[in-house]
Amino acid sequence: RFPFTMLVLQKAIKMVWELPDVMRVAYAFVLVMLCWMALWSFGVSGIVAMPIPNCGQWWLVLALSVSLFWTGAVLSNTVHVIVSGMVFLVLIHGGQAAASMPPKPLLKSLQYAVTTSFGSICYGSLFTAAIRTLRWEVCDLLARVSWCEIFNYQLIACHLFTPFHSLYLISD
Q1: Which of 4, 69, 85, 170 could hold 129 in an S-S bridge, CB 3.0 to 4.6 Å?
Q2: How many degrees, rounded to 5, is the angle at CA 24 between CA 111 and CA 108?
Q3: pLDDT digits (tens, 9 = 90+) for 116-127
Q4: How many domains does the chain have?
Q5: Is residue 128 scored above 70 in pLDDT?
Q6: Both ends of the chain: CA-CA distance in Å?
């Protein structure tokens, strides 16, 4: 199994490296995510600095954390769809220089990702964002408990994180 997996990964990496346009799109999405994180951090710091009563800060930070994780998952999954679309076009047409290859295949793949597939990308990313936020909150709760309660919380965390980890393995 392992040698076959390594062979498949080597072929996939070689194919993606031969598509420099795909790498440029991935870098552009990384830049967009960095800009979103900078804007998000200003928003969170503003909420933390404001005196909001009745645990309002906690709810706002929770909502912003869902938005951060959701945006990151949407951008990441959009890049996955673009890359898989380009790889599909290259494989189905027999190479990037083939005569049957459509003009501007990267734009076709990008258009497919942000139109036809975008709803599915957003919907699927919402679940991973909710799971990551819940995991983040549980980790925060575990960091605040006293040492005598840590054993009970570790049992809870083990039961919570095992299904989350299996979902990550399935979805990624």
Answers
A1: 69
A2: 20
A3: 999 999 998 888
A4: 1
A5: yes
A6: 19
